[in-house]
Amino acid sequence: MSTANQISKNHWYRNEDLAGVPGPAREIQGYGENPPVVRWENDAKLAINIVINYEEGSELTFAMGDGENDGMHELPFDVEEQRDLAKESMYEYGSRAGIWRMFRTFDRLNVPITVFGAAVALERNPAVARKILERGDELVGHGYRWIDHFKYSREEEKDLIEMAMESFERLGLRPQGWYCREMSVHTRELLVEDGRFLYDSDYYGDDLPYWTFINGKSHMVVPYSLAVNDCRYVIGTGYGSPSDFLDVMKRSVLQLLDDGDDCGRMMSIGLHPRITGNPARTQALAEFIEWAKEQEGVVFSRRIDIAEKFMEQVPRPSTPGDRLNR
Prior knowledge:
- By secondary structure, the chain is an alpha/beta fold.
- 35% of the residues lie in helices and 13% in strands.
- The chain has one domain: TIM Barrel (Alpha-Beta Barrel), CATH 3.20.20.
């Protein structure tokens, strides 16, 4: 018996995914060497999408009966088995001060944004929902609360999506995109079945949107990023100062404008009011926006604008074989 045949008997040896595993099929090859040559508004080569993750007030807390305190905060320790009032106040900084500092910055610099909004967070601070509508920004569904969807059954997750959408409707918001805190193997299938969503952003594997198929139906994925994301101020190996984040944003723009081919690309910048809403970090964000606006071939776009521009140039495929993946 050959070595390969001997090895293949071991459960850990695989060169392809197993059939019947729940969730979307992996799409490892993607566009490969020949991505589609797309252009954005004003014939720009790079579309920058600023995303505000608005979660404050919907996070896990003892105050809401969750029996735990959430993460992604400024202090490197946790209070257990009781309310963490310090952590709660850090989240409240985002809803009380940070979000408004950021909105003032976007107003002054005339920049459109996308808001990944948790429904409960907007219910508890409806002035933020009104500001999104007033500015003409885009809302992407970020769950009913800021919770991990993979922890729930398929039917429970379906109910959570419906609860969120009903809440958004009451606030006058109608998202066409979705981004969970942590998606489940059922999330994308549920979104396609629902029929109200053009795209989801629960994906980090590309710098361009792409079409996929879920149970025979085409669906767009608009990738997100945790690399150009302010969560790295407070978790993991990340930014020691606003200058670090500024440097990463600038270098990302320069590379994507001159990436060795003529293909246009998108760039996501993920922000949180409780993090970038702090003064020094907002100042660095404003400096970046002013710098990026001076670069030739750059446009700031909402996520829905990127999705629609992409669809104009790479139309919805009717079958999996029609996808432009090469």
